[in-house]
Amino acid sequence: MIMVTGGAGYIGSHVVKALLDENYEVAVIDNLSTGHRAALPEGIPFYRIDLVEENKLQTLFAELQPEAVLHFAAKSIVPESVKDPLGTFYTNLTGSMNLLKAMLGAGCKNIVFSSTAAVYGEPRAVPIAEDHPLEPTNPYGESKLFIERILAYTADADNLNYISLRYFNAAGADPEGKMGEDHDPETHLIPRVLTAAAGQEELTVFGDDYPTVDGSPVRDYIHICDLVSAHLLALEALLKGEKKAAVYNLGHQLGFSVLEVIKKAEEITGKNIPYKIGPRRPGDPSVLIAGSELIKKELNWAPRYSGLDTIIETAWRWHQNHPHGYGD
What we know:
With 328 residues, the chain is α/β, with parallel strands linked by helices. The protein has 2 domains: 2-171 and 221-250, NAD(P)-binding Rossmann-like Domain (Rossmann fold); 189-219 and 253-321, UDP-galactose 4-epimerase, domain 1 (Alpha-Beta Complex). The chain contains 10 helices and 14 strands. It has helices at 10-21, 54-64, 78-83, 85-105, 139-158, 189-197, 224-239, 258-269, 293-299, 308-321; strands at residues 2-5, 26-29, 46-47, 68-71, 110-116, 161-167, 169-171, 203-206, 218-219, 221-223, 245-250, 256-257, 275-278, 287-288. It has a 7-stranded parallel beta sheet with strand order 3-2-1-4-5-6-11, with helices on both faces. It has a 3-stranded mixed beta sheet with strand order 12-9-14. A two-stranded parallel sheet has the order 7-10. Helix 1 crosses helix 7. The longest helix is centred in the N-terminal third of the chain and has 21 residues, at 85-105. It is globular. The two termini are 28 Å apart.
């Protein structure tokens, strides 16, 4: 059995679908603080547990005896982490440590960890490779870096096998239209741009004075399905004993500014997207572009949904078919 924490969330639910498509036995843990039960298929074993509930976790793992864990559950909003660093550190660090203790207590030694490009901070060079200095500029990135270090120490002490995947900007939706991105409040750029295109919100661009081509921040966007395929490859590498400890970036090695994303969305949706310029958000680096050659070389990862067009097209299709998200 494969346990997925945060499996009712945006990325977790897409990974659950892919695991089921590959005939894995899957169970999901989620406290539904940001996830949606409706994002999961009926009948899947689902446990509404918060990872800070240590005793419940240990009891569940002792009962289910999972073979591996894919760990997505976390507080992940950068501005929220700046406003409430204690809440972010408590949830992310305590939850992850409780999870590792429950895993080891049940003899589970394999984990794929959802990390972030925020561990790098303001890049010294782009594209960013895995050996770039780790200098987070916000509590969210710092919390993920702490967890990566906890994984490394635990691997040495307890023979844990782990792969940490550092995401750049996940975006897009399931091409079949079954799942998409539904947060409340929504903080990610592309769904916010599309809700603005639909006339559902006024869009704010946070900063136009960055040292970029047009003054707005530049990000590397990766389609959710390509992110998912990397997780399955990482899981297979652990289960086959091909990897004991590894860290990989996940991105497309292409950067687009916020204003470029808005322009592309206008082309795809056929809508005028009004926006206003607001102040910078604390903790936001100017440019984040991935160097993803290592996972391509070592795990034969081959992104299929490259290009901003595909990302926005699938996200727009989801938004049109689900204007109120999952509705739960």
